[in-house]
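#structure-requests
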Amino acid sequence: QVQLIESGGGLVQPGGSLTLSCAASGRPFSSSSMGWSRHTPGKEREFVAAITMSGGDTYYASSVKGRFTISRDNAKNTVNLEMNSLKPEDTAVYYCAAGSIAGMIHGDPDSWGQGTQVTVSS
């Protein structure tokens, strides 16, 4: 229903910042809540952040609250994840997702992107 393409991943030093972007196509972008999750080999996929259809409400995992900010621009069909004060434990493949808020939080969205690698290391 929704095709998602993430970008913006890369290598950053601890304490640094990075912003991920997700471009959506297909289903009307504004009709879906959006979110981000991350996965590291050997660990379970972890919910990171979510935002409602209108962008009026956001949700964050405790591990990133205060450091990450999710936002969306419905006119441009994009959702961003601004990451600040990055830590080595933030290293993961980050995936954009579309669906319900419950789907974002519990790891069962309607659509996933292909993922973008974020590596936090000195």
